[in-house]
Design goal:
Strands 2-1-3-4 form a four-stranded parallel beta sheet, sandwiched between helices. The termini are far apart. Helix content is 51%, strand content 10%. The protein contains 35 helices and 14 strands. By secondary structure, it is of the alpha/beta class. It is elongated.
Length: 772
C-alpha cells in the first residue's frame, strides 16, 4: 500500500519552501507564476491528495454538513434531505445523515459525534420528545452554526428553517427560510417532477391554506402519521422505481406476442388465405374499389403491398422472430415498433377473425410499450461495486463510527424508466378493468345484480349462465357450474368489486397497490381456469406486473441505512438519457396529450353508454381508431342466457347426414370441454358468435360452406374431424341446437358432458350446383 505524498515531499520536488506549497494549495497568498507551476507539477507527479480532516482541524471547519432527522420512514424527511443535499453538492459540501428513530438519547449521541467532526454546519430536525436545547446552544456558541428544521425545541431561540443559510457563514444559496407545508414544497422543488407543488402553493387559490391545515394536523400527530405511513408504504418510503417491473413486463409481452403470432400462423391459410373462408386477395381489392385511396388509411396494413399466402406467412414468421428478440431484451423498442406494425397488419387483414378485444388490447399495449422500453441494442443490467463511505473518511483515527454505509456505484446502468409511459400503461389497465366492471351495471342486464338502480344479492345470477353459455368452456366450468348458488352470487359480487373498486388503488401507495395487483391477478387466474380466453388473461396479468415496484421485491437491499452519507454525485444518481430515449420521452408526452381526453371519454361512456362525445374529440378518435392505439373495453357487458350451437353436416345423397367436428367448440355431447388457451381457435370462436345472429349477419359462414363443398385442405386443417376425407360432400347444411351442461346424475348415467335439443335449420341445404 503506497504512502500518501506529503507537503514536505512536494516542497523538495519543486525546490521551494513548505509555506510556498501551502500558499499554492490553499490560495492564501500570491505566488510567482513560475513557482506556482513547479508546485503544481510536483503535486501532479506525486499524486498528492490534501487531507480533508487535517485541513478541517487547521481551519476548525470541514466541508461536511451534519444533518439529523427523527424518522427516515416518514416521506417528509427524506424529501427535505434530498433538497438540502442537491444544493449542498453543487457548492462542494457533503451531507452526513443520521436518523434518530425519535430516540432522544440517540439524538444527543449523534449531535456530539457530528460536533467532533467540525462540520461547516448542523441541520437538526428534533425528535418528538427532544431535550437538546441546551446542547444546541452549546454547539452553536462554540462551534458550527446550527439550524433547526421544521420544529422549534422548547426554549430554542435560534434559526428554524428547512433549507436555510447558516447564519451567513455557509453560502449555499439556501438563505430564504420557509416553514411548514411551504418548506416541504420548496424542498421538493429541487426535483423537476415536483416543482408543480411550489407553483401551486404560490398561485392556486386555496392550495396554500389547505396544505398548511393538513400540515398542522400531521405535525400535531407525528406518531399517528408515522404509523399510517408505515401501514400504507411499509418500511421503505422512497420514490418507487420500476426496473424489475419493466424488465419482466417486456419479457411477458414478448411471450404474449409470440403466442399470438404462432396461434394465428397455424390458422391463417384456412381463415384468410387464397383458399380460405375469407380470402384476403379478394377482400382488399374489393375495399380499394369501393373506398378509393381512403382505403389505405382506413385499413392500414402492409398487406396492401402483397396479399399472398407467402406474405401472410412472412408476417407471422417475422412476428415470431421479433417476439424472441423482445423476450431476450435485444433492441426492445425497435422490436416493439415492428411487432406493432406486423400485428396491426394481420389484424386488419384478418377481418372479423381478428376483431376480438384482446387483439386490440395487445395492439394498444404494444404501442404504449414502445415508449416504455429502453432504447438500447443489447440488454443491460445494473451492477454495483462497493465504494467507501465518506463518513469513514471523516472519523478520527481509531474511532469506530456509529453507522457507516457502502454506496452502490453503478457500473452499467439501465436506461431510466419513463414515468409518462408507465402512467399510460397503468391507465390502460385502469381503463380496461373499470370499464369491464361498469358496463356490466350500466348495460341494464339484471343478472349482474342491479335491479331498479339498486343492487340485490338474489339478483347476482350471472354465473348461473356464464359457465355453460361462454364461448369455449373448460372442463372446470362443468364443475364450477355445480357449485352452491350462494358461492356463485358471492363470486359475481367479488368480480364486480375487483373490476370497479380495485382499479382506483392502482394509484395508491405501495401496500394498497400491491393488494389491488394481487386481487386482479387472482381474478384473471380464476377466469383462465374456467374459460378459454386465449392470451387475454396473460396480457392483463402482465399489465399488473407494472404495479410491483423494486423496493417491494428487494426490501433488504432497498432500505435506507441509518447514520449514513446522503450525498452522491449527480452523475451516479441519474442516468444521462441518450437522444432516442429523450425523443421517446417527448413522444410519450404527446401521446398523453392526444389520447388522455379520448380515454377519459371512453371511460365515461361506460357509465353513460347513451352519451355522445364532443365533435372534435369524435373526429380525432375516428382518425386514430383504425390504428387500434386507443380503445374502449367491456367484456361480458350482457350475459348470454342461452347457448345455441351451429352443427355443420354434409351428405352425398341428401338423406344421410354426417356432422363435421370442430376442435374445441361443443359438438359431440360426450366429448369433454377442452382447454386450448392461450391458443385461440378463431373459427371455433366465430361459430359461437354466428349462433347469436343470422347467416346474413355473418357472410363469412357462406365462404366456409363453399370451402367444405370444394374440399379445401386449408379449411379442413381447422376441423377436428371431416366425415368426407377423400371426396367432399355433395350437400352441406347447418343445423341449430340448444346446448346445456348435464347434471351430475345425467353425467353418471350417460357419460355425456352436454345435452342438446334440435331447434331448426340455421342454413338450408346448399350444393355447388346452386352456387354456380
Amino acid at each position: 500500500m503506497s504512502v500518501p505524498a506529503t507537503m514536505r515531499q512536494i516542497a523538495d520536488r519543486a525546490d521551494v519552501s513548505i509555506g510556498t506549497v501551502s500558499h499554492v494549495i490553499n490560495g492564501t497568498a500570491k505566488v510567482r507564476e513560475k513557482l506556482r507551476l513547479r508546485v503544481l507539477e510536483a503535486i501532479r507527479s506525486l499524486g498528492y491528495q490534501p487531507s480533508q480532516l487535517g485541513r478541517g482541524l487547521r481551519r476548525n471547519q470541514t466541508s461536511m454538513l451534519g444533518m439529523i432527522i427523527p424518522d427516515v420512514t416518514n416521506p417528509f424527511f427524506p424529501a427535505v434531505v434530498r433538497g438540502v443535499e442537491d444544493v449542498a453538492y453543487k457548492r462542494s459540501y457533503r451531507v452526513v445523515l443520521c436518523n434518530t428513530d425519535n430516540d432522544p438519547q440517540k439524538e444527543i449521541s449523534y449531535l456530539n459525534d457530528l460536533r467532533s467532526y467540525r462540520p461547516a454546519g448542523l441541520l437538526v430536525i428534533p425528535a418528538a420528545e427532544s431535550h437538546i436545547t441546551a446542547l444546541l446552544r452549546s454547539v452553536a456558541s462554540s462551534g458550527p452554526p446550527v439550524v433547526c428544521i421544521d420544529r422549534r425545541p422548547t426554549g430554542w431561540d435560534g434559526d428554524v428553517v428547512v433549507v436555510g443559510g447558516f447564519g451567513g457563514v455557509v453560502d449555499i444559496e439556501l438563505i430564504a427560510a420557509f416553514f411548514a407545508a411551504e418548506a416541504v414544497y420548496r424542498s421538493l422543488a429541487y426535483r423537476p417532477s415536483r416543482t408543480w407543488l411550489a407553483w401551486s402553493y404560490d398561485r392556486v387559490p386555496g392550495f396554500a391554506a389547505i396544505s398548511e391545515a393538513v400540515y398542522k394536523f400531521v405535525a400535531r400527530h407525528r406518531g399517528f402519521g408515522s404509523a399510517v405511513t408505515r401501514l400504507l408504504w411499509g418500511k421503505d418510503v422512497r420514490l418507487p422505481t420500476y426496473f424489475w417491473a419493466r424488465r419482466w413486463f417486456l419479457r411477458a409481452l414478448g411471450v404474449i406476442y409470440l403466442i399470438a403470432f404462432v396461434s394465428l400462423w397455424v390458422q391463417v391459410d384456412g381463415l384468410i388465405g387464397s383458399d380460405g373462408m375469407s380470402p384476403l386477395n379478394r377482400f382488399l381489392p374489393a375495399v380499394r374499389a369501393q373506398l378509393g385511396p381512403d382505403a389505405y388509411t382506413l385499413l392500414p396494413t402492409l398487406c396492401w403491398l402483397d396479399s399472398s399466402n407467402a406474405f401472410l406467412h412472412l408476417l407471422c414468421g417475422g412476428g415470431v422472430a421479433l417476439s424472441l428478440l423482445l423476450i431476450f431484451g435485444i433492441a426492445p423498442a425497435l422490436s416493439l415498433l415492428a411487432l406493432f406494425v406486423f400485428y396491426l397488419s394481420l389484424t386488419i387483414a384478418g377481418q372479423t377473425f381478428l376483431s376480438f378485444q384482446w387483439d386490440i388490447l395487445l395492439l394498444e399495449t404494444g404501442f404504449l410499450s414502445i415508449f416504455f422500453a429502453p432504447w438500447q441494442l443489447w440488454p443491460r443490467r445494473s451492477f454495483a461495486e462497493p465504494a467507501v463511505s465518506a463518513a469513514n473518511n471523516l472519523r478520527p483515527a481509531g474511532d469506530t463510527p456509529a453507522a457507516t454505509v457502502t454506496i452502490a456505484r453503478p457500473r452499467q446502468q439501465e436506461a431510466p424508466v419513463s414515468r409518462t409511459a408507465l402512467f399510460l400503461l397503468k391507465f390502460l389497465l385502469f381503463k380496461l378493468m373499470l370499464m369491464s366492471g361498469v358496463v356490466k351495471l350500466s348495460s341494464g342486464d339484471d343478472s349482474w345484480g342491479l335491479v331498479n338502480h339498486s343492487l340485490h344479492w338474489s339478483a347476482l345470477t350471472a354465473l348461473d349462465y356464464h359457465y355453460w353459455s361462454q364461448p369455449l368452456p373448460t372442463v372446470f366450468s362443468w364443475w364450477a357450474d355445480k357449485g352452491p348458488e350462494s358461492f356463485k352470487h358471492f363470486s359475481v359480487a367479488f368480480c364486480l368489486v375487483v373490476e370497479i373498486v380495485m382499479p382506483f388503488f392502482l394509484w395508491a401507495p405501495r401496500r394498497p397497490r400491491l393488494i389491488a395487483a394481487g386481487l386482479l391477478i387472482f381474478l384473471q387466474l380464476v377466469i383462465a381456469i374456467t374459460g378459454n380466453y386465449c392470451f387475454f388473461n396473460l396480457l392483463t396479468i402482465a399489465l399488473c406486473l407494472l404495479l410491483i415496484d423494486d423496493q417491494s421485491l428487494c426490501r433488504k437491499s432497498a432500505q435506507l441505512p441509518l447514520g449514513t452519507l446522503a450525498a452522491l454525485p449527480a452523475a451516479l444518481r441519474s442516468t444521462r438519457a441518450v437522444l432516442p430515449q429523450r425523443l421517446c420521452s417527448y413522444a410519450s408526452v404527446v401521446v398523453v396529450i392526444v389520447t388522455l381526453p379520448i380515454n377519459a371519454w371512453l371511460t365515461f361512456s361506460a357509465f353513460k353508454p347513451e352519451a355522445r362525445p364532443p365533435r372534435m374529440l369524435a373526429d380525432i378518435y375516428g382518425k386514430l381508431e383504425a390504428f387500434r392505439i386507443v380503445n374502449g373495453y367491456g367484456l361480458f357487458r350482457v350475459m348470454t342466457k342461452d347457448r345455441c350451437e351451429i352443427i355443420l353436416e354434409g351428405s352425398d345423397d341428401g338423406m344421410e347426414w354426417l356432422p363435421y367436428e370442430f376442435k374445441w367448440k361443443p359438438g359431440d355431447v360426450k366429448r369433454a370441454p377442452g382447454w386450448c388457451a392461450p391458443h385461440q381457435p378463431r373459427l371455433d370462436w366465430q361459430m359461437w358468435f354466428a349462433a347469436l345472429g343470422t347467416p346474413q349477419e355473418n357472410p363469412w359462414i357462406g365462404g366456409l360452406i363453399v370451402r367444405l363443398l370444394q374440399g379445401s385442405h386449408d379449411v379442413d386443417r381447422l376441423l377436428a374431424h371431416n366425415p368426407f376425407p377423400g371426396k367432399p360432400p355433395r350437400y352441406v347444411r347447418a343445423m341449430y341446437y340448444r346446448y346445456r351442461f348435464t347434471t351430475p346424475s345425467e353425467r353418471r348415467q350417460t357419460g355425456a358432458w352436454w345435452k342438446r335439443q334440435e331447434l331448426r335449420e340455421y342454413l338450408p341445404t346448399v350444393s355447388l350446383d346452386q352456387l354456380r
